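Long-time lurker, finally posting.

We've been working with RNA polymerase sigma factor (Nocardioides luteus) and I want a structural starting point before designing mutants. I don't trust myself to interpret raw outputs, so I'm hoping someone here can both generate the structure tokens and explain anything notable. Sequence follows.
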Amino acid sequence: MGAEDELLVAVHDAHSEALYRYVARRTGDAEEARDVVQETLLRAWRNPAVLQRSDEGVRAWLFTTARNLVIDDLRSARRKREYATESPPEHSRADQTRADQTQAVLDSWVVADALLALSPDHRAVVVGAYYGGRSVNELARELEIPPGTVKSRLHYGLRALRLALQEKGVTS
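Top reply, 14 upvotes:
Generated this for you. Predicted structure of RNA polymerase sigma factor:
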């Protein structure tokens, strides 16, 4: 072991416990305090001139460095956006409802886009029957066409809609 390593061991033995207590009080987290002490000693090891100072100078440098590390961590974006927990949060019913609504909105966009691929006559019958909830006879009166034509347009319109959805990647 070199002279610098022996100095670092001596600094560790002399100051690590007090440094740990200081950081633990500032952070309130034992694991984080250990990490900060380790990083502080690593920085001291990388900066050998620090280890050459008097005992009071080394101690002041260690505590100042640890304090700055704690402050930097508190200001970091990680601290502002991440929260440590013992277990992952459970999804609430509101989250599930929101997810279900999102999928429904996306599905409606795909269907609306596929409906645009239909001819206006087929689209009018399909939308009237499925979205308007109207019967064949009601659609026949409304569109002024025979009920058989409504049935035929509905059949071929749904077939064209199925093909348009398959082209968009929706499987039947």
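Before you design anything, note these points.
Residues 3-81 form a domain with the Rna Polymerase Sigma Factor; Chain: A fold (CATH 1.10.1740).
DSSP finds nine helices and no strands in the chain.
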